[in-house]
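Hi D.,

Good news: the full-assembly prediction came through. Inputs first.
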Amino acid sequence: MSRKLAVVFLAMLVLVAAMGLKTIVTAHGDGSVIMANGGAPAPPTPYKNGGAPAPPTPYKNGGAPAPPTPY
Amino acid sequence: MPGPFACLIWFVCMLCEAAVVVCALKKRAFRRYLLLNLYMGGAVLSELGRFKILSEYGFNSRQYQYFYFYSDAVLTIFLYFALIALYSHVFSEMKAERYVKMGALLLLGGTAAFTGAVVLQSSAKLVTHFVVDLSQNLYFVGLVLTYVLWGAILKLRETRTRLIQLVLSLGVYFSLFAANYAIRNLYPPLSSVFVPLIQVFGLFLPLAWAYAFWRLPEEARLVPARLAVIPR
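Then the structure:
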């Protein structure tokens, strides 16, 4: 049983490490994806419609800096 | 249509991928490293499909975009299982195959669940977004797993030369893409240099694996450094 739990723990640990690494690497990225299979030229990702720059998120009203949360 | 340099690299890459399978067959290592060879065989088929669709519909077509990213996701899953097969080889003497398989399936399921949870936050093209993100997340899982495996190889003092070559080349391959991506984003003006390099990096893994199958026999062993004889 303890071996199985160790396997579960290691799997979760690797997942957390991988997602953490991805966040670090892609945090300041331009939105492109890393493709590592074969030598074919990579097209733009299909779920981006057009090449227009992304607008600011609609729920920010104005450009004032956000205050700390009231609670 | 991409330029002549891109097409040349692409064609050479396809040849190298086919060469891995041919070398493995010639050296009777096909069944021993079945998943690695299935990955390379799948990569060749995928390249042929991409070329056909690119020549029919063009580089900016939806057909090429979708085929490229969906085939990439399938190849990444193949590569993940190829990596797990390398784990099974390294841990074969410890009789831990059962645990390796269990951990691999758990990790794959966890990655898919995490990707699904993230993608559900967006509103459009859920399946496509899921496929691209799963491929991307599995890439990073593969990167971490390769380094963990390299640590295990050092710890267990593994001496099988061909196995070490296969694992190390996979680690270098993953790292090349991650480093290229990071440098591109740190220094955007250098993108014109580093974007074409992605295709050149694609040559590395098939070349290294073909070399491993062709030049390194299964019986070849490395001498561990700490076993050197010290004169008294």
